[in-house]
Amino acid sequence: MLRALIWKEMREIWVIAAIGLAINYWIVLGAMGFPMGFSFSIPDSIPFGSNDSTIILVTMTSCLSAMILGWWQNYHEELRETRRFLFHRPINRQRIIAIKAFVGLSASLFIALIPSIHYALWAATPGTHPSPFYWWITKWYFIGLAAIPLLYLGGFLGGLFPNGPLNNSGGLSIIAGILSGLLVGMALENRMPETLFISIPTMVLLFVIGILHITKTRDIA
Amino acid sequence: MTNAIVTERLTKYYQSKAVVRDVTLQIPTGTVYGLLGRNGAGKSTLIKMLLGMVHPDRGRATLLGDHSENLKPATRARIAYLAENHPLYKWMTIEELIRFTRPFYSIWNEEFLRGILDHFALSSRSKIRRLSNGQRAQVSLAIALAPDPELLILDDPTLGLDTVVRRDFLESMVQLIQRRGRTILLSSHILGDVERIADRIGIMMDGVLRVDCPLDTFKQTVRRIIIDWPGEPVSLSTRQGVVSERIVGRRSELVTVGSPEEYAEAAISLGAITTDIVEMNLEDAFIAYTRGIPKPLPQLSQEAQLCSAP
């Protein structure tokens, strides 16, 4: 049952995930010097340094694909009315939603982490670029990827409740996701880890409560 | 006798409009219940409330003894639901849909399922998106029946099918779903479908369950009376139980609920020459009963116990 649900979710999101991953790899490989037709990296920037456009773009692509992915996972069930088929399976509804979120979130993190780790390994390899590199430089970047679950959950909630607040669009959840992602960005910019360690779990918790509440109470018309 | 479905004053509002109002219903185990009503009468909302997909604003429902708002997975496994328009994952093949659905059930009759697919000449390698509406209905039925459900809830399963496909689908369905002790709730706006398989009907109008009685009782209760008058016909439309009246020349046609002899006698006493009581088929009776008329309709279940439990 669990495998069946995971397989279904993976089949439904693989195109979005593949596009997100391909764009990230396009950016990263360009920065690594591969002939990708166009490179976004600023010459002589330090990989994972504050002026590294590569990681900014990878973060933006990852956040955007996470949000789209979360939204699409639920919205297409609404659009195609398959929710009525899915939610009549003999399994707790919250469990279905939890599995959906697990698969989508894993895919979102995969899209962000795999190219980033690849890029970091390249940067750590001596002789690949002229700038110095220390693993600790990557710390803030990887902490910053904590914004991905927030954007994903915002999109997920928006798709789950497409006639929700903000002109019956569910847009409020998506905006909440974006704002919480920006909050993470601002906290990173100001090097305020204590803010992140409190705010990220709190925001995740709020989104999870919202998702569980909507799953339990929303009518499947 | 136990009841497979019980509802008590089930009510649902959308905005301020009651789409289902105070529906109290008992469907005994083993009954084939036809839920009728025009589009927008509240049939689908009632069904969704039964299945816990729509939350009632008032009242409660139980299915197979379990509260509908909190159906346990084990109970849900005993209930098959054919949703309106047969929403299935169109990117799957039939085989993939079977492989996806099977792990959810502890009872799964694969042989029966394959038999149904063979009967409908469906290849399990076909993509759902390439199937016609009728074929999607057939796949839905096969998947719904594989876990050998005790209760089948069919929400307008023939909606959107052409006449021939509908007839074939319905005939196959009648053969396939009949099993001792199995309860079926069939919602439809195609009266012929219901007439052929239901032994009890409910008619919903504007969210209210106006009729809840055995099919035969309904047909016997709603009658047409043709009255010939010597001159200008006397209108009987204001009498309690007259649901429609049509006057053509010196003849009037009444559709009545209740004892038709009483209306015939009343007409004779008012000077009618002859009266003829005509039995109606379900479709005609339904249309006459549900056609909008400017006065309140009598409720069959309250009409001198015309409709008692079977």
Give the topology, please.
The complex is a heterodimer of chains A (221) and B (310).
Chain A (H helix, E strand, L loop, with lengths): L1 H30 L21 H27 L3 H4 L6 H32 L14 H6 L2 H14 L4 H25 L3 H25 L4
Helix pairs in contact in A: 1-2, 1-4, 2-4, 2-6, 4-6, 6-7, 6-8, 7-8
Chain B lengths: L2 E12 L2 E12 L3 E6 L5 H8 L7 E6 L2 E2 L5 H4 L2 E4 L11 H8 L8 H10 L13 H13 L5 E5 L7 H15 L5 E6 L2 H7 L2 E6 L2 E7 H7 E7 L13 E7 L2 E7 L2 H10 L4 E6 L2 H9 L20
Parallel strand pairs in B: 3-8, 3-9, 6-7, 7-8
Antiparallel strand pairs in B: 1-2, 1-4, 4-5, 9-10, 11-13, 11-14, 12-13
Helix pairs in contact in B: 4-5, 5-6
Protein described:
By secondary structure, chain A is mainly alpha-helical. Chain A has one domain. Helix content of chain A is 74%, strand content 0%. Chain A contains 8 helices and no strands. In chain A, helix 2 runs parallel beside helix 6 and helix 7 runs antiparallel to helix 8. The two termini of chain A are 25 Å apart. With 310 residues, chain B is α/β, with parallel strands linked by helices. In chain B, the strands form 3 sheets. A 6-stranded mixed sheet of chain B has the order 6-7-8-3-9-10, with helices on both faces. In chain B, strands 2-1-4-5 form a 4-stranded antiparallel sheet. In chain B, helix 4 packs antiparallel against helix 5 and helix 5 packs parallel to helix 6. Chain B is elongated, with a radius of gyration of 22 Å. The termini of chain B are close together. About 3% of the residues of chain B have low confidence. At the A-B interface, helix 1 and helix 3 of A face helix 2 and helix 3 of B.
